[in-house]
Structure formats: structure tokens, C-alpha cells
Design a protein that fits this description.
Length: 69
């Protein structure tokens, strides 16, 4: 086949089927890692936003407390 000659599969002791399966596994793993990374970024951003809002509310509460006193 052209693929075997082009990529020298016999020299590397592999075949087209093995390489196709390996590429599918690699693509699946990379896709999973990328989606996991995106989800993690969203979760972390929500945590940062929550922390910033909590700090702002705490500061406003303290300001209200000191102004009223």
C-alpha cells in the first residue's frame, strides 16, 4: 500500500490498522483533556468571581458599620 511505503510501517514493525487505532486513542485523549481543562477554567473563574464579590460585600458592610457608628 501507499501508506506502508510512505510511512515505512514495516520498518517500524507496525501496520495501518494499529496506527489508525493509535491516532483515534490519541485524539480521544486530547479531546478529553481539552474539555476537562475548559471545565476547570470555568469552575476556577466562578470561584474567583465569588471571592471578589464576597470581598466587595464585606468591605461595603464594614463601611456601612463604621459610617453608622
Amino acid at each position: 500500500m501507499i501508506m506502508e511505503k510512505l510511512f515505512k510501517l514495516k520498518e517500524n514493525k507496525t501496520d495501518v490498522r494499529t496506527e489508525v487505532i493509535a491516532n483515534i486513542v490519541t485524539l480521544t485523549g486530547a479531546t478529553y483533556a481539552q474539555s476537562f481543562q475548559a471545565a476547570l477554567c470555568i469552575i476556577l473563574m466562578e470561584g474567583v468571581i465569588f471571592l471578589i464579590l464576597s470581598l466587595i460585600i464585606s468591605i461595603l458592610f464594614l463601611l456601612k458599620f463604621f459610617i453608622a457608628a
